[in-house]
């Protein structure tokens, strides 16, 4: 498939459900992160906590000025990105998934709600022949990655780690549509800060798309310290959920998305 045809396919995948959400219509045109304010002193950032600019927290444009987070500003392979085109992978991704039901402990960390796997070895993925175990999943609303400058109302990141410490993150986008009974189970466990819960006997594949076509690229963590050499596996096909289900995530944390970063010549491959 040519890059042009793949680009057209990406455009077709943008269509939101007739049950529209404001977040789905948000447009973000710039790929370049805003420059830090020169008037903000370094010692202030040492005392402040990173966030998204809410309640006096340090906004994404200034994360790189905080002690230990310089790569958020100087890195050349930062995430998320705006996907405008993708090329057919020369080297097969060989993306394989092996998920089964397990229990997750739920914690609100002040930035999102994290679902930590109690037995990471039960859930694995394989990329380029390398195995990664599922550590946790969490969400961002609206989506951090954009397709042709468009946000989706929700994006969930499934964070995996290999034996040698490399990270691989599966990103899944969600749009308004029919009810999603499995995602509703996750939404019902969106605890507030200081609270804990358990999501029992849950299979994460139930909230992933059946179509496994993947947009792969080299990137970073989307939160400080913004470490690079992260294998990103953004799922091309969005998953549908009802407006009410999506609203629960949005009401839990709205605006916990880092702006898209410069692609800096990186290639996004589709497999």
Brief summary:
The protein has helices spanning 3-12, 42-47, 71-74, 181-187, 243-252, and strands at 82-83, 87-88, 96-98, 102-108, 113-117, 124-127, 130-140, 146-147, 154-161, 167-176, 196-202, 214-220, 228-235, 239-241, 269-270. With 271 residues, it is an alpha+beta fold. Strands 2, 3, 4, 5, 6, 7, 9, 10, 11, 12, 13, 14 and 15 form a 13-stranded mixed sheet that branches. The protein has a two-stranded parallel ribbon with strand order 1-8.
Structure report:
The protein is built from 5 helices and 15 strands. With about 270 residues, it is α+β, with helices and mostly antiparallel strands. It has a single domain (about 5-15, about 70-270), classed as Roll (Carbonic Anhydrase II). Strands 2, 3, 4, 5, 6, 7, 9, 10, 11, 12, 13, 14 and 15 form a 13-stranded mixed sheet that branches. A hairpin with a 7-residue loop joins strand 12 (about 215-220) and strand 13. The protein is globular, with a radius of gyration of 18 Å.
How are the SSEs placed, and which strands pair?
Elements: H1 3-12, H2 42-47, H3 71-74, E1 82-83, E2 87-88, E3 96-98, E4 102-108, E5 113-117, E6 124-127, E7 130-140, E8 146-147, E9 154-161, E10 167-176, H4 181-187, E11 196-202, E12 214-220, E13 228-235, E14 239-241, H5 243-252, E15 269-270
Parallel strand pairs: 1-8, 2-15, 10-13, 10-14
Antiparallel strand pairs: 3-6, 4-5, 4-11, 5-7, 6-7, 7-9, 9-10, 12-13, 12-15
> Counting H and I runs of at least 4 residues, what is the number of helices?
5
Classify the beta-strand content into a percent band. Answer: 25-35%
Q: Any guess at the CATH architecture?
A: Roll
- What string, H for helix and E for strand, traces the elements in order? HHHEEEEEEEEEEHEEEEHE
Helical residues, percent: 10-25%
What's the CATH class, please?
Answer: Alpha Beta
pLDDT < 50 stretches: 1-6, 14-45
What Rg, in angstroms, do the CA atoms define?
18 Å
Sketch the major β-sheet. Answer: 13 strands, mixed
How many domains make up the coordinates?
Answer: 1
Subunit organisation of the chains: single chain
Structural class: alpha+beta
Overall shape: globular
CATH topology name, in short, is: Carbonic Anhydrase II
Instruction: Let me know the average pLDDT.
Output: 87
CATH superfamily membership: Alpha carbonic anhydrase
By DSSP, the count of extended strands is: 15
First-residue to last-residue Cα separation: 11 Å
